[in-house]
Write the structure tokens for this entry.
Amino acid sequence: MSAARRPGSVEGLWRVLAPSLCTWALAAVVIALPGAGVWLSVVSVLLVLLMGAVVYVRGRRRNRTGRQPDSVLGTRVFRTRVLGALLIGAAALLLLGARLIVLEEERRHPGLSASADIGRAMTVEVRLSTYPGSRSSEEGTRSWLRGTVDAAPVLVWLDGAPAPEWGPGSRVRVTGGVRAQPPESGAAFEISARGAVESIQGSLDGVVGALAESRARLAVAAAGVPGAELVPGFAVGDTSSVPERLGDSMRATSLTHLTAVSGSNCALVIGAITWVSTRLGAGRRTRIVLSGLALVGFVALIGPDPSVQRAAVMAGVMLASRFGGAPGAGPPALGAAVLLLVLADPWQSRQAGFGLSVLATGGVLLLVPVIEERLRRTARLPRVLRLPIAMSVASQLACGPGLLLIEPGIPLAGILANLLAAPAAPIGTGIGLIGLLLLGVSEPLGSAAVVVASWAARWVAAVAEVCETLPLARLDWPGGWGGAVLLIAAQCAPMIAVGLRSGVIGLPGGARVRQRAPWRPAPAAPTMVRVVIALLVFGAAGIAAGVTVAVPLAERAATPRDWAFVACDVGQGDALLLRDPRSPDAVVLVDTGDDPEALARCLRRFEVARIRRLVLTHDDRDHVGALGRVIDRVDSATIAPPVGKTVARTGGGTAPDACVSDPRAVAERRVLRELCAAAVPVELGFAGREIFLSAPSGGSGAPESARRDERSGIQVSVLAPSVGERPADSNGASLVLGVRVLGFAMLLLADTGREEQLRLQRAGTDLSADLVKIAHHGSRDHDPRLATAVGAGLAVVSVGAGNRYGHPTVETITSYEQAGAVVLRTDRLGAIAISPRVDGAARVWAERGGEATDGRTMSAACPRLEGWQRQRAEARARSLRWDGSKRGPPRSCSSADPKRSSPTALRGPSAISSRPRSPRPRSTTSKPPATPRARSSRSRAPPSSPSPASSGSMVSRSAPTRSSPT
């Protein structure tokens, strides 16, 4: 048999797989380019014509000379391999172009587009294409529906649980705001439902309705069994009842594939049917037919979700490679599956689930036999242990680079967790499916099966929770394409070295080492082979050591040690660190964000081991979602007042512990319940309360000397909400903080909206600061006059890159830029640190380089920050009229005198020098201190030449004395 036709030969391996991978990559690019389908069709036709011309020319030359041409294009290799691959690729391009033309026309909907353009709510009828999804938390249930309006794909978000009768084919009426999505998004429009969703055709008839009822019965039965939350996920991929904390643990340990319908679920169904049919004496073709029918029924039970379709096709790949053909047919079948899925829905090419499914299936097909054979020869393990280990290692090796594109870090605990969960997961899945079938016949029998399946679910949950806490559970590794390429190089180098050492792989231009008998001694490898092996091994070790050891050490060395303010890069959320550089152990953490791993990286980078005071400005998930990651290192906490209740003044000099004083609130609020369960002293914040750093032993009071001495450390004051207010929502209850350290004033606005900001200004609260944390990630709900009232030179916005909310908005950023502030964004600069010094100077550091909001580099946006406060004070004084009103915005730092500047560009970890402004006085309505203090020597003008204008701007306009800064 020739090499070209030998099953499993390398020569025929890529004939289908290579064109399918190219089509996948091309689809991921062209879906972001509207109208590219026409060009793809034209290119594919030209490619076919070119191949036809080449074949024609070859034929004429052969007929003229009577013999085969000697060129490479005339050999048999070209005809059977290259020409075949090109023909498959051209056909795939033609089909992809035609499919894109049809789908792009379906995605156009004039009514939805017009509603999205003018921002007007619209009522539409949506036909569901999948079962609804939902996620429950202490804040409530958030659900989503995937369907179509006419033919345009839409994604509907709604509050509350979906109706149990909804399923594929149901029609609902939705009223809500419409947002157009970018061309590469799977849904052309997103609709945020306002009010209740009306069911037009909720109950389904026939087989689909019966399957939907079966899913609902399983969910109800699992809800009544303790520890059975994972059983619906094992059986049908329903994770709506999985607790939030357990879901986080399973994500951290790479076990989420067990509760999502994956290829393993489908393979389990196929294996069960195959085993039964084999016992009954069925032949190979009969087994294939029965397994295919079982797979179709399982997909109908789960629903036509894209993830289910991927799992079914990948399971079909395994079926074809094991039972449907000769050994080694798996990789070509995998290529056919990828081609089929991409042509069916080109928008799957950018979905992480699709990529991970392909990588996991390819890793199982290509790496499991090699790893299992290596374990058999070296470790001499039995097959019952070799196969799970080989599958876990192969999946991790294949999916590792893909996971780095989603988030940085390598989950080392995932390998151990998958090994420990491997025996229980099939049991839970199989018995869960049996319980699903029995519930339709006998409820007691079905409930008993659910109870048995819950034992496996409890084991998997325990494995996830324990493995998450193991040391080195997650290895630091850079994310993105750079980290993925480094990991591929580190993984491939040892594999190639082993192949060279064993003779499976030969060097280019050299003869391949022949396989030897096991009892014969190994011949000495050639010198060149030994050199290449050594280079590969040392290269892999160097990459691993450099990424995991050298890079973290270099980052730590480049990170400033004298920071007083840090905005952690936690995505779409807030996590701020505050401290006095002279007391590095007394750290205040304001909010936690919603990404535990990102928060842990930030704390590790800035060497924060303990949190003396945790301040949770409000209870939204993007501010408290990662509380569980740091709760074990918190000494005391301050939280926002409850929503819907009047803010009351509590305590005197020492705030009472909310865990003891209000047991009812502990039961109602998840944040308070978690803090009290961890024995963390908690106090409620309100305007006028001073937050002092308690000693590690607990307590929230502070001596009077600490309250009065500005130089004793960091001072944190709550500016809102005021006593007597009744917040209507969590954003309205947000704690607004005023912070002062080393004379540097900061204003942290949490998620306040325009109404709360206007209330702050009307109350006469002094909002002047050197740095402001922009409210609500720069949302549109913002008072444009606030930026001028604050007068800060630095404005920090903590926001996630590419968030679906459109934060920060252009209007909000522009208002701060027009007020003269330099806007620093975590989505572009990463973590941001501010380091004020005793002499009044300050330094701005950014984790990575970036551009300002107007497209200029940071050095160009602010060529000089040194002394900008003094210049702004002089400008303010010049713009004062006789009645005290101001005219014109303050001078921007970008318009400072360039002769006195020393610009420093933000390239990578960057620094810009700045000098903090002297604080403006509090309103005359504020109560002066009992003991007057001497005026601080800090001034916007040099001490040797005091400026009357700047001195006048430092005092109250209605009183010559300076009031208390707190």
Notes: Confidence is low (pLDDT under 50) at residues 1-11, 70-74, 695-712, 850-966.
